Amino acid sequence: MNPQSIKRSLFAALFFIAASTSLFAQKFEELAQTPPMGWNSWNTFQTNIDEPLLKGMVDTYVSSGMRDAGYTYFVLDDGWMAMERDKDGNLVADPKKFPNGMKAFADYVHSKGLKFGIYNCAGTKTCAGYPGTRGYEYQDARLYASWGVDYLKFDWCNSEGINAREAYTTMSKAIRAAGRPMIFSLCEWGQNQPWKWASGVGQLWRSTGDIWAGFEKNLSKGSWTALSVLTILDKQDSIRQYAGPGHWNDPDMLEVGNGMKYNEDKAHFSLWCMLAAPLMAGNDLRKMSDETKSILTNKEVIAIDQDALGIEGFRFYSFDGLEIFIKPLANNELAVCFLNRSNHPQTVTYNWKDHAVNDAISKTNIDFNKTTYKLRDLWAKKDLGTTDKVFRQVIGADDVVMVRLGK
């Protein structure tokens, strides 16, 4: 073979490799550099959704200040589709619920400055019995792209005999091949330890089973158990090393505004922000109380969740129902959340200088004898002095005090 033929052959081989790499590349790496924020229809409405209801929800999303607070995604959960695919095997929006079709609804969401998300399932049927994606991954991904979908939540019902890693990897490749950047949310409930393999597959993965609007106690659903805020919280510490920009542990959607007490909602939201969790509201935005709105739109607390370092916080101290969580932030700052899990108020007396922070995962090392920080109460929205003084605060039952330590 002459030199020119060798060059042509080498070029062809390199082109094939490059094309193959592009074709089979997984997930869009640039997405979700901070935890995604949005709203999902499931917690309040389940499958009882339709176009007029949801357009009203989109409008309220904007007028309530949620969009201005940083929430971006409007996600339809289960129940948006017809019970059968069409003659070509395509999913079809339920014509009674969405008479103008899904593309028109997606366009409406986009017209309000929001991004549009949709739901399906890795199994043969969704959790509510609608057509699943198994065997239709590439066809469904192309359809979603044609509608302008920006976010796909992918569930795990009716998946008997299916390998989770294979199923989610196939859908991830299908999204990539469709060519439209979409956040891919793996919702297999942490059953297959996705934190160990999914960082190249999707931008977030559920770390536990489903949440419910209960702060302390789980709720039996017969064949399965809905988990409380604190139950889910206790499952996060051992997997925090797997989270970071573009790949997040997901402790499930927010239940703020869905029936818990104000202090429990505030604690729930604070802890999810400390965990660098995706913030997906699930309440009826049209009926938000002022208290609920004040929680969901507190920009100082949201800033902790959205910190550029993307470090998941951790339990630093635990004694007699009182727990302290720490989240390292950019510029060598810290967020500290004091949680009272007991059923009575407790007084915190905390000498910063007695408690150096050493976090092996984030390489954070702070000695308060050498460095002084200013304290900012993120719920009271007031300054509290510095770490040179002992911190004293009464914390109610099932409540938190959350402070930011800055220079």
Could you say which structural class the secondary elements and strand pairing correspond to? alpha/beta
Count of individual domains: 2
Overall 3D shape: globular
Number of helices: 10
Order of helices and strands: HEHHEHEHEHEEEEHEHEHHEEEEEEEEEE
- CATH-wise, what's the superfamily of the largest domain? Aldolase class I
Strand content: 15-25%
> What's the total count of β strands?
20
* Span between termini: 68 Å
Instruction: Give the rounded overall mean pLDDT.
Output: 94
Q: The CATH topology of the largest domain is what?
A: TIM Barrel
Largest sheet: 8 strands, parallel
Give the CATH class of the largest domain. Answer: Alpha Beta
Cα radius of gyration in angstroms: 23 Å
CATH architecture of the largest domain: Alpha-Beta Barrel
Strand line-up across the major sheet: 9-6-5-4-3-2-1-10
Indicate the low-confidence ranges by residue numbers.
Answer: 1-24
Instruction: Specify the helix fraction band.
Output: 25-40%
Secondary-structure map:
Blueprint lengths: L2 H22 L12 E4 L1 H4 L5 H13 L9 E3 L25 H11 L3 E7 L15 H11 L3 E5 L8 H15 L4 E4 L17 E3 L12 E2 L4 E2 L2 H5 L14 E3 L11 H13 L4 E3 L8 H7 L2 H7 L8 E6 L2 E7 L5 E7 L5 E5 L6 E3 L4 E3 L7 E4 L4 E5 L4 E5 L3 E8 L1
Parallel strand pairs: 1-2, 1-10, 2-3, 3-4, 4-5, 5-6, 6-9
Antiparallel strand pairs: 7-8, 11-12, 12-13, 13-20, 14-19, 15-16, 17-18, 17-20
Helix pairs in contact: 5-6, 8-9, 8-10
